[in-house]
Amino acid sequence: MSSSTELRILLDSTYILPIIGVEVEGINKALIVLRELGREKKASFYYTEFNILEILGKIAKVGYDYDVVAAGLSLIREEFKLAHPTVEGYMKALDLKRKGFKDLIDLLLYTTSLTRNLLFLTRDTALINFLKDLNEETGNIIYEEDFIEKYT
User: Fold this and answer.
1) Rounded CA gap, 108 and 52, in Å?
2) Is residue 120 a contact partner of residue 109, using CB atoms and an 8 Å limit?
3) Are 107 and 96 within 8 A, CB to CB?
4) Biggest alpha carbon distance in the chain?
5) For 68-98, how does the pLDDT look when each residue is reduced to its tens digit (9 = 90+)?
């Protein structure tokens, strides 16, 4: 598959947590599909500094293995591409936050994927439903179950 048809996927933090040693319930099927797409060079994976902020916030609340987290963070930087937000994305996230969605990080991930023309893989039905209720663009979002079904 050529790079022009390669999937460009921004990962929700859920899919990055296992890399730093945090187990996520019910995620194995999605991780297998992601690994296969990566191995076959059918997809490239993106993260943002918002992902890192979110995962650090989660692990700071629980016990963690310093070496595993450090190795995982290094792996993320080496294997994934960093997606930078745009001013348009920041403003869109701010607007959506004002319209009532509580999780600013999820909004920033969504708007970064939207403005950077990336697919956004998530299992966050609250975000998807919120966006649909507002008639916002959701064509860039891949819901986890649909992702597994389509790429298995």
Assistant:
1) 13
2) yes
3) yes
4) 44
5) 999 999 999 999 999 999 999 999 999 999 9
133 token code pair = 């209720």
pLDDT at 5: 74
CA distances to 17, 67, 80, 132 from 11, in Å: 10, 23, 10, 20
Q: What is the Cα 62 distance to its own chain's centre?
A: 21
Q: pLDDT of 39-72, one tens digit each?
A: 999 999 999 999 999 999 999 998 899 999 999 9
On whether the CB atoms of residues 68 and 34 are closer than 8 A, the answer is no
The structure's pTM equals 0.94
pLDDT tens string 135-146:
999 999 999 999
Q: Tell me the CB-side half-sphere exposure of residue 30, using CA atoms within 13 A.
A: 21
Domain 7-151 has CATH 3.30.70.100: no
Alpha helices in 5-141 (DSSP H): 28-39, 49-60, 66-79, 87-98, 104-115, 125-133
Q: What does each C-alpha distance from 130 to 89, 114, 126 come to in angstroms?
A: 17, 16, 6
